Amino acid sequence: MSTESTIHDAIDDAATTVGSVWPIHSFVTANPLSGFEGMPFGEAVTQAADLFGGRGYPSREIFRAALDDGRIDRELLESELADRGYDADPETLLERLDTSVQSPAPDDDAERVDHVLTKWLSAFLDEGGAAWPMPNRGDGFYAAFREMAAHDADVPEEGLLAALPETPTEAIEAVLEPYPESQRVPVFEEQLAALPGWTGFIKQRADDEGAWQSAYPVTLADYLAVRLALLDGFGVDVEPSTGPESAGTDPADELAEAFLSAWEASYRAEVVDRVAAESKSLAEGESAAGGDSSGERDPSDRPDAQLVFCIDTRSEVIRRHVEDEGEYETHGYAGFFGVPMEYQGYDAEVSTDACPPILDAQHRISEVPTDVETQARRDRRSSVREVAGEVAKKLKTNPASAFGFVESAGSGYGLALAARTLVPSRVRDLLGAAADAVPDDREFCEQTVHHQHAYAGDLPIGLTHEEKVEYAATAFELMGWEEFGRLVVFTGHASETTNNPYGSSLDCGACAGNPGGPNARVLAAICADPDVQAELRERGFEVPDDTVFLAGEHNTTTDEVEIYGDVPESHAEDLAELRADLDAARESATAERAESMGADPAAGVDETERRAGDWAETRPEWGLAGNAGFVVGPRELTSDLDLDGRAFLHSYDWSTDPDGDALEAILAGPMVVTQWINAQYYFSTVDNAVYGSGSKATQNPVGNVGVYQGNGGDLMTGLPRQSLMAAADEPYHQPLRLSTVVHAPVDRVTEVLADHGEVTELLDNGWLSLTVVDPTKEHRAFEYDRDLSWVSTSEPTASESGTPVEPETPTATEPETPADPEERVAPTVADD
Length: 832
What we know:
The protein is an alpha/beta fold. The protein has three domains: 31-58 and 259-289 and 626-832, no CATH class; 105-233, no CATH class; 303-600 and 608-617, no CATH class. Helix 15 (372-397) crosses helix 16 and helix 19 (465-479) packs across helix 21 (530-538). The model is unreliable at 798-832 (pLDDT under 50).
């Protein structure tokens, strides 16, 4: 094997420890320790602390507040502590708890390396923010730096920097020549971890191979070559540090794990108990009515409308209030609505992925003008605004004109600044009125949903008939649909915010940090296709002739739900009533949101609109803060529960999924994505300086790709403090690992897990928990232990205690003796 190959293999191995970082304009919430998911959680956070210097568990103050508030059940805590050999009371043990991480002493030369390197990284990796971009970017980062180094007074003409080799591999080889090959991976790990924000961004950009990467290529080898050359020039030793080979378990981490596990169990027990109770109650109700437990409904119970929302925790709030307004049925489905696509809006310069990062886009969907007259009117009005905006931007950002611009703008500019600060709601209304004067893209465009027999790059434009049928059928299968209302609305979601670099973090995570409206429109168009409906009926989905499919978008900041388009006259009254009820639901939902942010609930709509338009508002909304649970099951299990906007909700009916295909898709897809989101919020909360992005007040956007804290350094990788904290010492987000609750036969869940080692690995290593409420076993709850085995967390009923329960499949069995509350249910074919 060539030297170049071995170096690149070593870089690939080292890069697994660095989490991917997406650009700020399409922020994707992801586990910053994703490269450590192959090891137990406790071991992972310990190794990550050594590498990145970040804390892995909440502080004693956070645990103490949770204990004092009753969020940690004392009996559960005492049990967790006893299991680990602690017998002192929790308050005494908290005093011993110290989860802080000792920072290494600063190295002045290494800091000078960071200064030079990050200066050129920000110039090279800019995505449209810089007025003066770095020259020679088309040649790649290493080549561009090699050309510019001689002109940078901060770059010493020492060592390798005096004559940089032509290729990055040669530069790496030259610096590492004195070191044995066995040290390459440790060297690379430490140097990648020195700036995990920039290296994570380079890793993601290289993997994505998007437009910016194609135009201005960069690799981790480029980065390492430049960094190692700078370290050599500044005389910094690159030999990797070595810690004790067997440091053992840190007692503080063991204690913190006990408190964290008890806190998670306390939250989980409440959700599981309520879901199990609802499951039993629904079954008893169906039995009393002469039905069965299959979930079939009386045709006369047809809902007035069905609205499908994203599984996002913010949807849980609006769904409750929509259901309170009428005979409405709401469902949860991943917000890209099952269509893995790349989307390009009308007049957009670049396309964007509109699907989860764990999927590759399979289709290109674009906005195509169909109304020439409206298009021309829109273009005339918007072009004037765009040109004026571009001129103002250049005047303000160009050093030669910035001061003159502000001086000449004079009082008018000052009044505009004052208005945005003092009356943001009024400015928002005025801007909204101006925007309304420009025709919306949806008024004169349609999406290229139908197959065009052409390609955009490697992606086919549009979808074939067969593909459309599959996406529609998959959606209804995953949600367990057997009937349809007169109106069916697929509702994507987006956030509204002003002057917020992290605005995309509040958009749809399932759409890679972009609004979900375009995806909703695609699925609505698919389902409205008569040919698709005909084939759906052949597959058993009886779509009535009077069902109309629509799309909409939920503004998660203001809770306004906009429904796109019109309906036939026969449905006009239905739609008008739905829109009125959505307005009423908004009043209730915004009151709840306002109260959670310490504002007057009676002024919920006004307060949320103010936050959306206030350019000084650091917390326009809570986003996904508070997320802790993921419930997979029929909406009836949670429709009477207030889950406080903390649970992802995915619709699923086990009785309509005999082969478990829909369940498999949910556990291998949405559950993994929600675990990513949950981990991002967790780590950003427990150590915001390392895994988050600090205060918005001291952030500086850089290159339209990320933010600094201060005027330079590493890209911050996670969420800002204001998205997580109610006050400086008061977290709003409760840092808990995700608790998933699934309503399905435990045997079926075991079968799915057996086929997905990557999901089982997450569970075995404690990155999330999984509890199954089994409707076929007297609605008992089974918690996943490890190695495809389960622990019953509820007592068997009298009907179970005298008779062994026969498993549905040979995958899981239960003992023939009466079950103990902590009995273990082990698979019989675990070795297959």
